[in-house]
């Protein structure tokens, strides 16, 4: 685990000393765009939509990258945007392309480490070396390394090349989606990390309480509707899904978010199964990579690096969510 400083790799864990034990996630630094939809920050560059020009670097372990894998498949972009997956094990060199550990290898440059790609983008790059990364093969640079942007780019940026007319961010729901995203990002998606990476009791408890407040709120809301904004699936659901699917297997024990499991919430657990059972979703979900990554890579939290064998949860079990359709 580490970061680049002026293009040089440094092996460093997150600094929580200056923030009173709180984990503060660094903002993504490269946020350019593909396609003409949406208002984008005025200094962002627009790249043209092209077939087979862009490459997506992901980790199957990572909840942020998982969103992009799901939307890429739902929008049928497999032949438009190629992918490489890193190894689930992230230690002193950060993300690697070690094939013996389950990486696909780096199909563009044959690099050993993801930080080499960030250096190809900018040989003086400073910042964390994160997945997902959307890469432009033509100009050899990172287009965007923020998953929230990448799923919106996939949602409509390549529509001229795909038959999928799915819209995960419909105009009429944008305000509602933005509001839901904000609460879920802060207290759930990032909330589990704020609990797990906290280094003071106070910071941990604060994240824990907010996380379970939101899960209780979601349980209530999903008791009367199939998806987060009503009866239509949107990006807000995928953003929540990738945290929920990791919750009982990893966050509950590794990050100590153990007031309740998702399995203990009748509506949330069925909602999770409903999403998981959409045809292409299981193929984007790799629970082995997920377990290996967290338990083996976070030595400050789990120094023995022992990967638990359980739990056994059947996500293919029937759910009762069609009743809302
Ligand atoms: N805001 C970013 C966060 C990405 C992120 O933090 N990814 C994690 C993997 S789960 C990572 O690569 N961490 C490496 C590090 O922080 O050094 C996004 O949503 O794309």
TrEMBL record:
Signal sequence bounds: none
Cellular component, GO annotation: cytoplasm
Site positions for Lowers pKa of active site Cys: 251, 294
Source species, domain of life: Bacteria
Annotated active site: 62, 193
UniProt cross-references to Pfam families, sorted A to Z: GST_C_2, GST_N_2
Chain positions recorded as glutathione binding sites: 95, 128-131, 146-147
Keywords attached to this entry: Transferase
Keyword Transferase carried by entry: yes
A single MF term (Gene Ontology): glutathione transferase activity
GST C-terminal domain sequence ranges: 170-297
The keyword Transferase is annotated on this UniProt entry: yes
Entries under InterPro entries matching the protein: Glutathione-S-Trfase_C-like, Glutathione-S-Trfase_C_sf, Glutathione_S-Trfase, Glutathione_S-Trfase_N, GST_Omega-like_C, GST_Omega/GSH, Thioredoxin-like_sf
PANTHER family cross-referenced by the UniProt entry: GLUTATHIONE S-TRANSFERASE OMEGA-LIKE 1-RELATED, GLUTATHIONYL-HYDROQUINONE REDUCTASE
Protein name (record): Putative glutathione S-transferase
Lineage: Bacteria, Pseudomonadati, Pseudomonadota, Betaproteobacteria, Nitrosomonadales
């Amino acid at each position: 685990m580490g970061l680049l400083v002026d293009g040089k790799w440094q092996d460093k864990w997150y600094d929580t000393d200056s923030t009173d034990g709180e984990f503060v996630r660094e903002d993504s630094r490269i946020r350019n765009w593909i396609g003409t939809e949406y208002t984008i920050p005025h200094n962002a560059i627009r790249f043209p939509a092209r077939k087979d020009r862009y490459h997506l670097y992901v980790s199957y372990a990572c909840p942020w990258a998982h969103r992009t894998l799901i939307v890429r498949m739902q929008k049928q972009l497999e032949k438009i945007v190629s992918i490489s997956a890193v190894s689930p094990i992230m230690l002193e060199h950060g993300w690697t392309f070690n094939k013996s550990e389950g990486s696909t290898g780096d199909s563009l440059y044959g690099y050993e480490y993801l930080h080499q790609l960030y250096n190809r983008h900018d040989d003086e790059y400073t910042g964390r070396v994160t997945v997902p990364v959307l890469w432009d093969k033509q100009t050899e640079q990172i287009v965007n390394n923020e998953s929230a942007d990448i799923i919106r780019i996939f949602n409509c940026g390549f529509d001229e090349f795909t038959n999928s007319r799915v819209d995960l961010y419909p105009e009429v729901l944008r305000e509602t989606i933005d509001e839901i995203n904000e609460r879920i990002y802060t207290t759930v998606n990032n909330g589990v990390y704020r609990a797990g990476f906290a280094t003071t009791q106070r910071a941990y408890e604060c994240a824990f309480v907010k996380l379970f407040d939101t899960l209780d709120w979601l349980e209530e809301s999903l008791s009367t509707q199939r998806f987060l904004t009503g009866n239509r699936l949107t990006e807000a659901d995928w953003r929540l899904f990738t945290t929920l699917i990791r919750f009982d297997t990893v966050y509950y024990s590794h990050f100590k978010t153990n007031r309740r499991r998702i399995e203990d919430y009748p509506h949330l657990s069925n909602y999770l199964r409903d999403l998981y059972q959409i045809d292409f979703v299981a193929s984007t979900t790799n629970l082995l990579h997920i377990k290996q990554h967290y338990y083996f890579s976070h030595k400050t939290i789990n120094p023995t690096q022992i990967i638990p064998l359980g739990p056994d949860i059947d996500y293919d079990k029937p759910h009762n969510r069609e009743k809302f359709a």
